[in-house]
Amino acid sequence: MSDFLRAEFLSPLPPPPARGKSWREKLFGDARATAITLGLLVAAGLLLPPAVRYLFIDAVWTAPDGALCRAPGAGACWAYVAAKLPFFIYGAYPQPWRVNTAFLLALVLIVWLLRPRAKYKNYALGGFFIGLPVVGFILLHGAPALGLPVVGTNLWGGALVSLIMALAGMTAALPGGVALALGRRSKLPALRWLCVGTIEFVRGAPLIAVLFMANVLLPLFLPPDWAPDRLLRPLFGIALFASAYMAEVVRGGLAAVPLGQSEAAAALGFSRWQGLRLIVLPQALGAVVPGIVNNFVALFKDTTLVAIVGLFDFLHAIETARLDPAWAGPQIALTGYIFAAAFYLGFCLAMSSYARALEGRLAEARR
Amino acid sequence: MVLVVKKIVLALGLALFLAGVGARADTLDQVRARGALVCGVNIGLAGFGLPDDRGSWRGFDIDYCRAVAAAIFGDAQKVRFTPLSGKDRFTALQSGEIDILSRNTTWTQSREAGQGLLFVGINYFDGQAFLARKARNLKSVRDLKGASICVQQGTTTELNLADYFRKTGISAETVVFTGGDEALKAYESGRCDAYTTDGSALYAQRLKLSAPDDHEVLAETLSKEPFGPVVRQGDDRWFNLVKWTHFALLDAEELGVTSANVESLRESQNPEIRRLLGADNDFGAGLGLSKDWVARIVKAVGNYGEIFSRNLGEGSPLKIPRGLNAQWRDGGLHYAPPVR
Fold first, then answer.
1. CA A24 to chain centroid
2. Which residue of B97, B207, B314 is the best one to mutate when testing the A interface, meaning the one whose CB has the most A CBs within 10 A?
3. Mutate to test the interface with A, among B26, B95, B309 (most CBs of A within 10 A)
4. Quick one: A159-311 is in which CATH superfamily?
5. According to the UniProt entry, where is the signal peptide (chain B) (predicted)?
6. What residue in A sits closest to B10 (Cα-Cα)?
7. Mean of the pLDDT values across residues B33-59?
8. Which pLDDT tens digit goes with each residue over A208-218?
9. Closest to B95 measured CA to CA, from B232, B204, B2
10. Residue ranges per domain, chain A?
């Protein structure tokens, strides 16, 4: 009666191999794998040598100005990057040691926080969310009482601005996002509507529009002494943006935690907040690590948008420096963009590889 | 209903805006109280305003800011530079965020009559020009008949070019590119016989070619692009101060007063130089400045010729000829009223 029902059993499939395939079997196991491997090898063979020649062999490593880099056949002009490096990192900041100290402090705290089995993490947490902003502000902005002259934000630039934007955005995004996500699930209608409105409004407007509004409209409507600093305006915009996007990621995590978890916490005598803090949130955040890191990576690259409001972030510092008539030449723009790509790639790779390790650890813990 | 709300919001905004403007009538007093001049500059234009290796600003427009600071404080370092994009440069000035806009801004009627701005004068006469290979040996733009010309899309340069061809009846092929760098690349690869944009930018673009010396900028220009510093309307004293800083730079060059000889020329017997440097009379008081205001300016940044040469002319990699920007005695257009 039915042609689509099988009449007899299929022969059983062979059992999975006891050990994984060797590299040779993987790469050249059958005709298809061999063809793909060889094709990719040929492509690499065609693309890599010119790239290596351009980046290293023909590159100009030291030069007093752009004359050597302008010569026909010259490759990447690393001498230009070396000459402009202080500008790329600090902008016009007059005392680099203050920036270096702040960078170092941030680095120590981040490594401390991210090491799996580091001790006294509560101190690191406090240091990162309270100590770092305060000390960083005193170091970078200055405190005449402590002998640190004030450095106006118009002198800040380069990687300094990019990293401040990214760090401030990330530092604000996690607590802000959790708060907005919890508010969105709240039973109090006014609070819920406020959070939903904020999230939807911020996600609905392009970041460029927010930056322009903050930069152009705020000073028009406020007396000149009230208008926030030119660095703070985009900082607020970015923090708000990152929080709204983070809120939706966190909401996804909260939805993934079964209701039974909070009920069980209540049954064990946890208060609402304890249950949230100790039972629900750790599971929710753990479930959405890829989403959080994805947001951080996007945020880090979005910081380049502040260039349109006249801030010299890392990318814009490179874009500006390539106009310098002393260095201008056919290879300068390309060299600058390669350097910028390496910078952003390095940071984003570091973030995503840490996230992969974290996911692995969380998966192990769940098993 | 929506219209009414809109009107109320607009009125409220305008009232706040006017209140803000009214609160800052005297710019000079504010600059003195602040201890620094705030100057709006380009976010990066070779020769006009660009941070150097250490991030400190250099350029033709920058030196104009430093000249004003030197006139007020006797110290050319007392300037804060606010880099502004083309979009927010005028709002920054209107809102009082900056004291002067010194940012290669073209003087046009609508900007002055419609936006509450005042141009203090023309400090650089620019115009749309052409870059071509020296080997072609072009004498004028008319020799480009039948040639192909690279131009950036959606700019006034593209429109000027079309206007020019229509006016003169010359036929030439226009090749349009989305970005300036792409257009330059196409020109270098031989896709076009000439590349056109503003003259001041062409000299900087030329340096991006692999053999800059094989290319020349034609002297003839298509359009008028007069650049000058801009201030807000409603503060005549400040307007005068910036305007006369500009004239003082030109007068100093005309009289041969340079940063090197300004100290020794204080004893000069030439009455014009004595007046300029405030040896006898006090011409600074009317501007709210000291007697030796011109000497302060020239000592700090040099005269107009020195500023031009250092940033744009022979003393810089750009090597822009003075052309229209020469003094009136040398066949240029710069003609400053005297200090007396």
1. 37
2. B207
3. B95
4. MetI-like (1.10.3720.10)
5. none
6. A221
7. 90
8. 888 888 777 77
9. B232
10. 28-57, 159-311
